[in-house]
Amino acid sequence: MPGEGVVRMMADRTGGLTGTDEETAVFTGIVEEVGEIVDVVAQQDAARLRVRGPLVTSDARPGDSIAVNGVCLTVVEPADGEFGVDVMGETLRRSSLAGATAGTRVNLERAVAAGARLGGHIVQGHVDGTAAVVERTEHEQWTTVRFRVDGGLTRYVVEKGSIAVDGVSLTVTEVDDESFAVGLIPTTLRETTLGERAVGSTVNLEVDVVAKYVERLVGAQVDPGSGK
């Protein structure tokens, strides 16, 4: 189930969307491997990252899209199990990549190929903002994690709805005006970076894009003068 964020090695990642950019790439929130940032070069209102990810780089070519902690980025200079990405200022301001350093572990997923299974939910790799881990509750076989959300994003979050947290497709178990909670099974805790996210950690969020479209469409139906 997508709510469990189960990690699966999807066999049909190749053969589709090769050479696409961030506008057309699609992900599912099923992390393929945990990689590591090996170098960060700060630039004017941008950054160049070098990421180690042997699996996702095995068939990568320049121009391919890979989600790094849920952020869709374009591959440059793939070689020897590593790839480079250019991160513009807008992405740095909206995501946790602004604080990335050499040694930072990141969730990695290649763009899904046309016709492949959607094991999670449709994820664009367009991060809407960040959240902070405010509580972790350990259960016998799973863990509940609660996130505090800024910027009014909780209006797009609904109980039992889907949300991408650091690129992991999860199902919301609870939500209020300022926070939401998810349940993480052992596989997710072990095979993604969410098992390492302690209280105070910052994560990337991408809400369900359908909710944003609905809000815009409904808003367009309202006559500002009549309130109807």
Descriptive notes:
The chain has 228 residues and is mainly beta. It has 2 domains: 2-110, Elongation Factor Tu (Ef-tu), domain 3; 129-215, Elongation Factor Tu (Ef-tu), domain 3, CATH 2.40.30. Helices cover 13% and strands 37% of the residues. The chain has helices at 54-57, 89-94, 186-191, 209-221, and strands at 33-43, 46-52, 65-68, 71-74, 76-79, 82-88, 105-110, 129-138, 143-149, 162-165, 168-175, 179-184, 202-207. The N and C termini lie far apart (39 Å). Mean pLDDT is 87; it is low at 1-22.
Short description:
13% of the residues lie in helices and 37% in strands.
Write down the Rg.
Answer: 17 Å
Helix and strand run? EEHEEEEHEEEEEEHEH
CATH class of the largest domain: Mainly Beta
Low-confidence stretches: 1-22
Strand order of the largest sheet: 4-3-7-1-2-6-5
Shape: globular
Please give the CATH architecture of the largest domain: Beta Barrel
Fraction of residues in H or I helices: 10-25%
Fold blueprint:
Blueprint: E1 33-43, E2 46-52, H1 54-57, E3 65-68, E4 71-74, E5 76-79, E6 82-88, H2 89-94, E7 105-110, E8 129-138, E9 143-149, E10 162-165, E11 168-175, E12 179-184, H3 186-191, E13 202-207, H4 209-221
Antiparallel strand pairs: 1-2, 1-7, 2-6, 3-4, 3-7, 5-6, 8-9, 8-13, 9-12, 10-11, 10-13, 11-12
